[in-house]
Design goal:
Blueprint (H helix, E strand, L loop, with lengths): L4 H4 L3 H22 L1 H10 L20 H6 L13 E6 L9 E5 H17 L7 E4 L7 H12 L3 E3 L6 H10 L4 E4 L1 H13 L11 E5 L5 H11 L2 E8 L4 E6 L8 E3 L4 E6 L13 E7 L10 E7 L1 E2 L11 E2 L4 E2 L4 E3 L2 E3 L1 H9 L4 E12 L2 E10 L1 H6 L3 H19 L4 E5 L14 E3 L4
Parallel strand pairs: 3-4, 3-5, 5-6, 6-7, 18-21, 19-20
Antiparallel strand pairs: 1-2, 7-8, 8-9, 9-14, 10-11, 11-12, 12-15, 13-14, 16-17, 18-19
Helix pairs in contact: 2-3, 5-6, 7-8, 8-9, 10-12
The structure holds adenosine-5'-diphosphate (ADP) and zinc ion.
Length: 435
C-alpha cells in the first residue's frame, strides 16, 4: 500500500523540480539563521541565489560529523529553542556527542515518513506492532512509535532488553509485526527456541529491521526463524532518524529514499566528487523540509549504490542498496554508533590508564560482544594498592562505557607497553563480525 500516493509516485522530473524549489528555500533560511552555514557558504564563495538547478549541487559545501560536534549542543539549530518540541542525541561524552532538535512540524513529517515506511511493509490499523527498538535519546524507538500510531496500528512500546518478557508478549499479545535491530531479532529467535517456544507459530507476518548493517543471508535466517517477511529500513539521526529510506514488499531490492524530503547523492569519499547514479560511493543527504535542524550535503559515511530502475510497487523514488560498509571508522555495536575516538575520550579521563587500548568486537550468539584491553600506567602498575586499585579502574571503565556509550565491554587491564609492543600490525579495533 502507498501511504502518500501523490508524493510517492511523482514523476521523476516533478521530483527534481520540487527538490530544487525546496532546496532554494532551505539555502536562504540556513544562510540567514545559522552562523555556521553563512561561514561555510562564504568560504565556498556561494550565495543561496546561486543554486538554480541540481547541476549546481556540487558547489554547495559538505557538512561533516566534525561540524556537528564543533557546534555541540545547539549551534546548528535554525529555530529558537521555544520552537523545539523534541531533542535526541547520539552517545558519547560532550566533546564527541551530537544533538538533534525537532519542531512540531518536523515530528509530523517524520511520523508521516515512518507511516509511509510501515505502509510499504503492508501494515494498517489492523496490525499490532511489537516495537523492540530502544526508546530514549536514540531515535529508533520513538521514530517507529509515532509512525505506527499514525497509521492507526496498536503499538507495543517494548523497547530493547527483557528478552524473556518480550517472548511472553509475542505469544500473549499476538503482534503481527515486529521492529528491532536484525541482531536482536535473531537473539529473540534463539532465546525463544531455547525456551521451547515455536517462533514460527506466532502471529507475526512481517518484520522491519535496521539501525545496523545486515546481509541478505541474515535476512533469510530471520525470515526462516519467524516465518515472516523481513524488510530493511534505513535512517540516521543527523538527517532525521529511521524512515529516510524503506524497502517495499513488492520490490525486495534496495530501499526507496523519500525524495520529496531528502536529496541523496553518492560521492567518491576520497575526492568528494559526485558519482554517476548507480556507482558505489558514500551517501550524502540534504534535508528539504526540516525546520529545526536542516542539513546541507551531510556526509553519512555509509557506502551504497543508488538503483534507478523503476520499481514494480509504483513508487517513483530512487532506491539505495543495502548498506554494509562505511567510509570511516564508525562501528555499530548492538545498534549503537561508536567511534574509537569516543572510547579514547572515556579512557583518557580515567586516571591510571595509558591511552593505549584495543577494542575487539565479535558475536556472542546473535548479539555483538565487546572486549576492551587497556594498558595501565607504570605508576599504578608498580606502586598501587595492588589488585584493589586495578579492580576499581576496571569497574570505572565498565561504568563509563555503559553510561556514556551504552555498551558493556568485558574489560581486561594489561601491563604497560603490552599493546604497543605489537606495533606494525597493531590495530586499535578488531572487528571479527561478518555482515
Ligand atoms: P538509527 O536509529 O538508524 O540507528 P543512528 O543515527 O543511531 O540511527 O545510526 C545511523 C547509522 O546506522 C547509519 O548511518 C548507518 O550506518 C546505520 N544504519 C541504519 N540503518 C541501517 C540499515 N538498514 N542497514 C545498515 N546500516 C544502517
Ligand atoms: Zn518499490
Amino acid at each position: 500500500m502507498i501511504y502518500n500516493e501523490e508524493f510517492e509516485t511523482l514523476p521523476r522530473e516533478a521530483i527534481r523540480a520540487l527538490q530544487v524549489k525546496r532546496l532554494q528555500g532551505v539555502l536562504q533560511r540556513v544562510y540567514h539563521t545559522v552562523g555556521y552555514y553563512k561561514k561555510a557558504f562564504d568560504a565556498a564563495g556561494i550565495k543561496p541565489d546561486d543554486f538554480q538547478a541540481m547541476a549546481d549541487m556540487h558547489r554547495l559545501p559538505f557538512t561533516n560529523r566534525k561540524d556537528l560536534r564543533e557546534n555541540y549542543p545547539f549551534g546548528l539549530f535554525a529555530v529558537p529553542m521555544s520552537s523545539i518540541v523534541r531533542l535526541h542525541a547520539s552517545s558519547g561524552t560532550s566533546g564527541v556527542s551530537t544533538v538533534f532538535g525537532y519542531t512540531r512540524h518536523d515530528i509530523d513529517i517524520w511520523s508521516e515518513l515512518m507511516a509511509r515506511s510501515l505502509a510499504a511493509a503492508g501494515l494498517t490499523k489492523n496490525d499490532i506492532v511489537h516495537n523492540a527498538y530502544g526508546y530514549g535519546l536514540f531515535t529508533g524507538g520513538l521514530g517507529l512509535h509515532y509512525g505506527a500510531e499514525k497509521i492507526g496500528a496498536s503499538v507495543i512500546p517494548m523497547s530493547g532488553g527483557n528478552t524473556k518478557r518480550q517472548i511472553m508478549i509475542l505469544q500473549d499479545f499476538g503482534p503481527t509485526a515486529i521492529c528491532s535491530t536484525p541482531s536482536y531479532a535473531l537473539h529473540l529467535a534463539e532465546e525463544g527456541k531455547a525456551q521451547g517456544v515455536d517462533m514460527k507459530s506466532l502471529k507475526l507476518r512481517v518484520g522491519i529491521f535496521g539501525a545496523e548493517p545486515w546481509s541478505k543471508a541474515i535476512c533469510a535466517e530471520i525470515e526462516q526463524a519467524f516465518s515472516i517477511t523481513a524488510l530493511n529500513i534505513f535512517g540516521l539521526s543527523e538527517v532525521m532518524g529511521p524512515g529516510i529510506a524503506m524497502e517495499c514488499l513488492e520490490g525486495r531490492n534496495g530501499m526507496h529514499v523519500f525524495e520529496d524530503h531528502f536529496i541523496v547523492e553518492t560521492i567518491n569519499p576520497a575526492t568528494g566528487e559526485i558519482l554517476p547514479e548507480g556507482e558505489e560511493g558514500e551517501l550524502v543527504f540534504t534535508t528539504l523540509t526540516k525546520e529545526a535542524f536542516p542539513l546541507i550535503r551531510y556526509r553519512s559515511g555509509d557506502i551504497s549504490r543508488l538503483i534507478t530502475e523503476p520499481c514494480r510497487c509504483g513508487r517513483s523514488h530512487i532506491r539505495m542498496e543495502r548498506v554494509v560498509k562505511r567510509s570511516d571508522d564508525m562501528l555499530i555495536i548492538r545498534g549503537i554508533n561508536v567511534f574509537p575516538s569516543q572510547v579514547e575520550a572515556i579512557l583518557v579521563a580515567i586516571e591510571g590508564l595509558e591511552p593505549h587500548y584495543q577494542l575487539i568486537v565479535d558475536k556472542a550468539g546473535a548479539l555483538d560482544s565487546v572486549e576492551l584491553q587497556v594498558e595501565v600506567s607504570e605508576k599504578i602498575f608498580s606502586e598501587s594498592g595492588g589488585v584493589k586499585d586495578l579492580q576499581n579502574i576496571e569497574r570505572r571503565i565498565v561504568k563509563d562505557m555503559k553510561d556514556y556509550l551504552g555498551i558493556s565491554p568485558r574489560v581486561k587491564l594489561v601491563e604497560p607497553n603490552t599493546l604497543q609492543r605489537q606495533a606494525g600490525a597493531f590495530k586499535k579495533v578488531i572487528d571479527k563480525r561478518k555482515f
